[in-house]
Structures are given as structure tokens and as C-alpha cells.
# Entry
Amino acid sequence: QVQLVESGGGLVQAGGSLRLSCAASGRIFSFNVMYWYRQAPGKQRELVAGITSGGTTNYADPVKGRFTISRDNAKKTVYLQMNSLQPEDTAVYYCALRRITAAQVEFWGQGTQVTVSS
# Structure
């Protein structure tokens, strides 16, 4: 099994920055994709960004140019640097992992709240 633990959420004013971390433990496979998703109140969970073991990244349009996903494979940790935060970024942010052989996300973290005040 894989355990994912997020940290770094909090309350920030619009225009501010936060960095989220997600530490993975357990049976981590070498080839995987790690993601950040978010879910705002009353909305569906949406993909924010993803990064492969090799460092290839992708981003949702609303966060392009503001958010940066990165990972440290030695530390089994993925990060999400969030700059120029806006109130619409307010959500619970979830870390997720998919093995490269799987068709969909297999493991989820418990989530961390990010609140951006105007």
C-alpha cells in the first residue's frame, strides 16, 4: 500500500504564495505519476497538475504560469508551489499517485485546505 500525506495548506491573502508538500511512503513503484487535485465547495474535484517520475509536467489552464509542480524522488515527495493566489483557488488540495501501468489514480492523500482571502 501507499500512503500520501499532504502539508502546507493555510490561509493567505490574494496575491500571496503557498507551497504544498506531499510525502509518500509504503510500496512506492519507481515509475509513477503524481498529481495535485483540488475540490472547492459545491464543485467537482479537478486536476491541477501532474508530474511523471522523469519530471514531465502538465497543468490545468487556470493555474498555468502561477503554479509549479516538482518532485524529489529521493525524498519521495512532490511539491506544489502556488504563486499569485486568487480567491477562486480556495479548495481542499489532494495529492494522488498512479502507477505507470494503471489507468487511473490509485492512491489519495487526505487533503489540505487552502483558503485565499480577497
